[in-house]
Structures are given as structure tokens and as C-alpha cells.
Amino acid sequence: MTDSYGRSGSQGRARTKLRLLPALEPRPVEEQTEETSPPEAKAYLLNPADGTIRSVMLPAGNRTEYIRKLVRASKVAVIGIEDAHLLYTDNNGLIDGLSSVTDLKGHSSPLAGNLLIVGRDESGAAASVSAGIDDVASWFTIIRPVFLPVFETLRESQTLGTRVIRLDVRIERSIPNVIR
């Protein structure tokens, strides 16, 4: 069985079930206006272009601009994952041409660009991530095209050579590599 963007139902590895919050549609991140600044927080940055996920620290204080820089987007959206995590993504990432997308288990649409995964405190605000990096990496599948050249053998007089006559495309799926 194949879903709406060509992903086969069989991923070749067991995937645990995640529970997304009822509101699956991303919502824009608003500027923080709190009087008190939140403490520094541990988060994970997933870079699908590199195929990696690594730990980063969110600074204390207003984090909005820092999150935008990590995600590399001017408009950032947030998706709630279970009751304990938030995922920040580029709100317009699927509009431009893409070299890769990322699949989040249980989410109906692929995600584009860098993803930032943080924890969520009791009030719903960003806090240190509570899940381990290996667990978080298993929530995602990076999907990228791989070009496969098809060659033709050229035989001209005493010269033997090859040339590319077309490029076939294979879709590669992988979990992010953990950078420690």
C-alpha cells in the first residue's frame, strides 16, 4: 500500500506509534511576550540535507529568532507531538522545490527543511526535550531522490568509451544519523 506521497507502507523497520496532538495542522509561532525568561533548554536539530540529528541548546530568554535561524525559515510553524514535545518546522517549506522531505510517524504530510524538536512543559511552552536522541531519530524518515546514471558504450574506430544517456531516479528512505 502506498500513501499520498509515494511512501510504501512497509518501511523495512519496526516503528513505534506516536500520538500527535489533536490539532495536526501547524500553527505559526508567536513572539514571546513573557516577563520571565525561560531557562536554557536542550533540543534536537534534524538536518535532512545532511541526514543527521544532533543536540543543540536553546538560549534562555526569547528564543523565537534563534529557532528561526536553526530551522532556517522566516515563518516557523509548531506541531505538538504527544504531550511532551514540540516540533518546529518551516511553515512554507513545501512550496519551493525540494531535495528532501522528512516523514514524521503519524503525521499526514511530509515536512520540509530543518526540524527542531524540543520538550514541552506543563504550560505548553518549550522546555528541554525529555526523550533520548535515538528515540527521537526513530520517529522520522528522511526521503531523498538519488539519481542513477544509465550509460551507453561508445565504439568509434579504435576508441572505446561511455556516456550517460539518461538519469533514473530512486527514492531513498533512512532514519537520521545521530551525531553525538
Question: If you had to describe this structure to a student in words, what would you say it looks like?
Answer:
- The protein has one domain.
- Helix content is 7%, strand content 42%.
- It is built from 2 helices and 11 strands, in the order βββαβββββαβββ.
- The chain is elongated.
- The N terminus is likely disordered.
Keywords:
8-stranded mixed beta sheet; mainly beta; single chain; 180 residues; 7% helix; elongated
How are the SSEs placed, and which strands pair?
Layout: E1 27-28, E2 41-47, E3 52-58, H1 64-71, E4 76-81, E5 85-90, E6 101-104, E7 115-120, E8 126-127, H2 133-137, E9 140-156, E10 159-174, E11 177-179
Parallel strand pairs: 3-11
Antiparallel strand pairs: 1-4, 2-3, 2-7, 4-5, 5-7, 6-9, 7-8, 9-10
**Could you give the order of the helices and strands?**
EEEHEEEEEHEEE
- Estimate the mean pLDDT confidence: 82
Helix content: under 10%
Helix count equals: 2
Query: How many structural units, i.e. domains?
Result: 1
Low-confidence stretches: 1-16
Most strands sheet: 8 strands, mixed
Apparent shape: elongated
| Strand elements, count | 11
Q: Would you tell me the structural class of the helices and strands?
A: mainly beta
Radius of gyration: 20 Å
Distance between the termini: 36 Å
How much β-strand is present in the residues? 35-45%
Question: What is shown here, in short?
Answer:
With 180 residues, this protein is mainly β. The chain is 7% helix and 42% strand.
